[in-house]
Amino acid sequence: MTDSSSLPVRDLRQITVRPILHEEDSRWNALMRTHHYLGFRSLVGESLKYVALSGSEWVALLGWGAAAFKCGDRDRWIGWAPPEQFRRLRYIANNQRFLILPEARTPHLASRVLGLCLRRLSSDWRRQFNHPILLAETFVDPSRFAGTCYKAAGWICLGETRGFGRNGGVYYAHGQKKTVWVRPLHARAPAILAAPFDDPLLLGGSMSALPVDSLRLDGETGLFTLLRTTVRDPRKARGIRHNYLSVLLVGLAGVLAGKRSYEGIARWAQDLSQSQLRRLGCRWSPGKERFL
């Protein structure tokens, strides 16, 4: 980002932030190329460009794009395993460019603009790309900036990068270490990103969305293994028709899909496909030639 220090905006309460219009793209690009210390060519991945205005005057520009493929401090803070990391990077947006225009520099403008942008970032992203943003991230060059505006806007400094970049899928050492900053946009952001199943929030917010296909069932940390080693079957052997693990998994998946009663889970389970019932370990009926 570019710091601010002089020529005041008269009233920070009048600042507004919105995505740029299609016809404003060339102006946004030109200003970023001219005034940002890194210049500008393009944003990476799914991206949105914003402008902050004081009345009708442009005072700041923000560019959001795809998250860093890997970042040790961020990944440890989230606590996710590689399968979840690679599937859910799309729910993190990287503040790839932030510029306070020279004629608008004034104390507290940067943190004000950041805060206003974060309030709408996830909903704007959902409208544009059909999924929310749970976490914002950025990388700050400590030789130029202290990250004060990010701290003032509620961001968390997680540490420092090792000074590597990625180009064409290949990592290389450039020696330019940067501080890592994140800002959760949901109270449960780390837990949702690291969970072995897809939270309904990631599936469009629909409480009837089925997380069955994304549940991690097998392997050392899979639900089959965890349930088998932590829960004992209390039933007597006589009359048992269904494996207790499949009963537990169907119930758990129903709860994850938003059902809060036995009746609701039962109705939900009736709509499961045969492949989903098979995945949950349900019983095969030779007579009916289907999973029950």
UniProtKB/TrEMBL annotation:
Ranges for domain H repeat-associated protein N-terminal come to 230-280
Signal peptide, first to last residue: none
Question: InterPro entries given for it?
Answer: DruA, YbfD_N
Supply the name of the protein: H repeat-associated protein N-terminal domain-containing protein
Please give the organism: Leptospirillum ferrodiazotrophum
